[in-house]
Amino acid sequence: MKGTIFLNLALVACLGLFLWWAQGSLDGYKIQILNLIAVNIILALSLNLIYGFTGMFSLGHAGFMAIGAYVCSILIMTPDQKMTLFILQEAYPWVQDSHAPFLVAVVAGGVVAALFGLVIGAPLLRLGDDYLGIATLGFAEIVRVIANNIPRVTNGALGFKGIPDHANLWWNYGWCLLTLYFVIRILGSNTGNVFKAIRDDETAAKAMGINVFRIKLLSFTIGAFFAGVGGALLASLLTTIDPKMFLFTLTFNVLMIVVTGGLGSITGSILAGIGITVVLEWLRFVENPVTIGEWTMPGIPGMRMVVFSLVLILVILFRREGIMGMREITWAGLAKLMKRGGA
Questions:
Q1: Distance of alpha carbon 14 from alpha carbon 184, whole angstroms
Q2: What is the pTM of this model?
């Protein structure tokens, strides 16, 4: 146990050294990709907790992200800044005058998203898998439409611009490590075992006396909290948000990471979060104009998502369990692998 703790601390220290090096050596574009990797891992872990470990098919992540993003943005922008932004209608006094440090704002974004998860989860989690997916998708769309139609809170279709860019490498990876630690701890506890029992056989879990609805609601609320945190960090990272940003494609991107990494695998979410974020950025070249001799094909916006969706279909067809399936990379597993290699 002590050896594992030491190795984990050493790994965190290596990550810290890498971030320190990256901040001083890499250009802004590469740093932005590193930041997006951290945020995407947070979002993937939160959705995997709901879908991969508890077995609830949820498509409402974009809604929770929107809630976290707007709450955080309202709190970290100064009153003077909000006065210049709200040009459609004047902001409510509680919106105009509210202000908080970045840490408090991110936590508040997660807490408000969790409260919404608790409120909507109470009726929706009584539905079956497919119906739950449709209902949560509807919730995300309702959040987006409401954000578009309450200009005194969200500035309507104009959204927020010039959001303070506090979400640097240290904040994003700090929250990423905190999310990872929390998810590992809860899944390693008796509660985590109950999550997996419900996923594997809900009827058997009920027969064992487990309050399935209460445990499902707990998982859904925790996932909503970290989705709100991810949305808050994303808003500060991009420095601009509007309702069009929180379409279903945002949930789809997170779902791609979870499915590709493996439903029920923390390691898979991390590996896929890194790989998919990098590949999606790399695939931007397919949206650029292509010139062959005298023939030029204009760029097609959104083409990279088409290409990546085809890749995802191939993954589902030929490796349905994803990169890791339900397996994890552990220090004990690596030690056994090294012993086999030495033998």
A1: 20
A2: 0.91
